[in-house]
Design goal:
Layout (H helix, E strand, L loop, with lengths): L3 E10 L4 E7 L11 E6 L9 E4 L8 E7 L7 H5 L7 E8 L8 E6 L4 H12 L7 E6 L8 H8 L3 E5 L14 H7 L6 E5 L2 H13 L7 E2 L4
Parallel strand pairs: 7-8, 7-10, 8-9, 10-11
Antiparallel strand pairs: 1-2, 1-6, 2-5, 3-4, 3-6
């Protein structure tokens, strides 16, 4: 396995707890939209503690981008990444990931689980191939939505936001459960893409398959 040490080109918080990192792109380093790599911090204490993060940029760009949820209450890798800024160094590992675009369908994301879909949507948008895709995006509150304006701009009415802990005017305050899927999806034979916590992925994929979705049409990261 080849590791790549890269310099951070830019690091900015894009929500109250999500930080966007742009880093150098090693020569010949390539990925398919939706894929990820393991990232570690290039310091003696943290260089052997890699964590998986998804690429969010277009693959044609000359940098790599990650949108990472920072858990300040944990003394772990993401807490340290919250302190990483322009000029610091990260270590990238091999590219991997099962979430890849197979065709138009319904994308279902929970929280930071939106990240593999961002690169896919950006890629489809510039290719003018986003038609026929829908995003159902669940968060605790409206403040947790990642890349809200860009997703709205790309997906228009096919961007549906749900909030589990607040009721915002014009938006749905509910969870994605079996009843919600029955009421909001008419075709269970199409592609489905799911990303979020292990519990989120397990429950949503279970509901979909129970409702008639084919196992090989339900795309998610195998844990």
């Amino acid at each position: 396995m080849e590791n790549h040490t890269v310099r951070v080109l830019d690091a900015q918080f894009i929500t109250h707890d999500v930080k966007c990192f742009k880093v150098e792109k090693p020569e010949g380093y390539d990925f398919i939209p939706g894929q990820a790599t393991e990232v570690s911090i290039n310091t003696t204490e943290w260089n052997d503690k890699p964590r998986p993060f998804t690429f969010t940029n277009l693959k044609e760009e000359n940098y790599l981008e990650f949108m990472i949820k920072i858990y300040k209450e944990h003394n772990g890798v993401t807490n340290m990444l919250g302190r990483i800024n322009k000029g610091d160094e990260l270590i990238l590992h091999d590219v991997w990931g099962a979430i890849q675009y197979k065709g138009p369908g319904v994308f279902i994301a929970g929280g930071a689980g939106i990240t593999p879909f961002i690169s896919i949507f950006r890629d489809l948008f510039i290719k003018k191939q986003l038609a026929g895709n829908k995003l159902i995006y669940s968060n605790k509150t409206s403040e947790d939505v990642i890349m809200n304006e860009e997703l709205e701009g790309m997906l228009k009415d096919n961007f549906i936001k749900l909030f589990t802990r607040e009721k915002v005017m014009g938006f749905t305050g509910k969870r994605i459960d079996r009843k919600y899927l029955i009421e909001n999806i008419t075709d269970f034979s199409q592609h489905f893409y799911i990303c979020g916590s292990k519990e989120f992925v397990k429950s949503i994929s279970g509901y979909l398959i129970d409702l008639g979705a084919k196992i090989d049409e339900v795309v998610f990261e195998k844990s």
